[in-house]
Amino acid sequence: MSTLKEIRSEVKNNTGAKDPNFPPSRLNRIINLAQRYVQIQLNGLGMKKWEKSNVITAGLTADRYNSAINNVKKCPVNATYFPSILESPASITSIHVSDGLNYGVALMVDSACFYELLDNSYMSPEIHAPRFIRQDNYIWLAPVDITSATAYYQRIVADMVNDTDTTEIPAEMEEFCVRKAVLDIFEILDKTAKDTKAGIDADISTAFEKFVGKMNTEHAVTADKSKLVLQ
After folding, report:
1. For the chain, what are the domain ranges?
2. Which residue, of 35, 68, 105, 174, is most buried by count of CB atoms within 10 Å of its CB?
3. What's the pTM?
């Protein structure tokens, strides 16, 4: 893994950003934003590296969603119940719930579907098939019988602060942090860059497919070796 100092040096070399307008603190900020950008792209492709879970039971309160027939439980999306959550549309992957006796995994639906389920006596979600939406900085959960819940979500990649801090982006994807930071600096300087966001996104997708293929191959080889040992 590369350090902040190493990435900053590479960004400076690729942009010539030695202007007083780009002190280390500003370059660090640009680099940290770049790695968050890369993280979001990787999350969208299916990377699970930054998954986190947290119990949100204490934040659950009963409420009514848009005057629907059936009540719900809701919990605020804040630092207490969702520490370090990544702010992206699909950052909350699922919520495991219980009513004390039964269990279920709540999946996200859109607001129209959620209201339709709640406003119909026959379609209201049950504990074995719960549903949730995120709206107005709250998680709205159905059914109202839910008494405990654990949220599974994507956390923000940790900012690099000290020169010796290393990025959490996989080594195979680090170059995209540099490319995004370089592109951002060129935009600030109003200079034409060879790179584009679309180009970076496409290359991240290609690199991720190769990365997954490599991991699958290594896993298969390890599995074959394990079989030989067992035999």
Report:
1. 4-49+158-212, 51-154
2. 35
3. 0.77
